[in-house]
Amino acid sequence: MSRLSLSAALRQGLIAGTLGLALLGPAHADEPLDVVTSFSILDDMVSTIGGDHVAVTSLVGPNGDAHAFSPKPSDAQSLAKADLVVVNGLQFEGWIDRLIEASGYQGDVVVASRGIQPLAFDGHHDEEVADHDADHDHDHGDADHDHDHGDVDHDHAEAGHHHHGNLDPHAWQDLRNGEQYARNIRDGLIKVDPSHADDYRRNAERYIEQMKVLDTETRERLAKIPEADRLIITSHDAFGYFAHAYGLKLLAPVGLNTLAEPSASDMAELIQQIEHNHAKALFLENMSNPALVQQLHQETGIAIGGTLYADALTPKGEGSTYLGMFRHNVDTLVDALESGH
Question: Is residue 27 within 8 Å of 50, Cβ to Cβ?
Fold first, then answer.
């Protein structure tokens, strides 16, 4: 679908009266802020920091795949009445600019990844991108605001397709980046709702401390695994930041895009790499097609070590929060790598 037709379709679905709500500014002090997030991990972060002062709507819900997301008119309606919008940035949401434009939203957009050092993606994760600002000025209250939300590639990011360019957007898979996400969200909430600034600061401080504790624990647990055994294979390349931060080696058959289909030669090369490196386990993801990992399991005989949470939380259970998701992934990886699968 073209950019124009997408915007037109979304506009047609809008209730005219909702557009005016965007001009009313933040919610009154006795009402929770209406915050719209792009996907479920940000939903949990905003809910944790905002507490009772926020009502959060996630465009891509639990177990949802942001790679395959196509906005609906109801999504534009949600944005039209929002007090604040929170996105990942780093080219993760290829559909967000056109959706915001269609909704008429004029408020602030918090880019959660702003200030982190992004990793380059060229098939490997051994490089950081130097001097890259993960965000531009996203103050949409200004008259000269633009609609650039985290370096989206407008020429290639059509609705329902997901192109990352040369940046890996999955920065939340490093807890130290998660701390920066929390700071950005805290500051965004304070800007639109300064009357509750103390609560936002206190909640964010507690949240960041929990991330620090889990980060230390993760490093200690993975350091005990022999370096030669720290190879993981996942169905798509969402764990580059995790591997980079915690000393793992990562292989994935489809790169960064869950919609991609690896060629026969790509699969053959990957199987060679897996066998050459004596991989211990293959891992599924909660929002990816398991067929590729199942095929690799059949062709290599390497066991499937479990399911990891990559781009989405689960509706309930341990994977329903950011910290729970991260702890589950660490437990699953350590159990599989230690057991010598």
Answer: no
Tokens of 146: 């633009």
Mind listing the pLDDT tens digit for each residue in 168-201?
A: 999 999 999 999 999 999 999 999 999 999 999 9
Cα(85)–Cα(237) distance, integer angstroms: 26
Tokens read off for 230: 């720290």
Alpha helices in the chain (DSSP H): 3-13, 16-21, 40-50, 73-80, 96-103, 175-192, 197-223, 240-246, 264-276, 291-300, 322-339
The pair of structure tokens assigned to 35 is 């915050």
Instruction: Write the CB contacts of 63 (distance below 8 Å, at least 6 apart in sequence).
Output: 286, 287, 312, 313, 314, 315
Domains and CATH numbers, the chain: 3-211 (3.40.50.1980), 213-339 (3.40.50.1980)
The SS3 of residue 227 is: helix
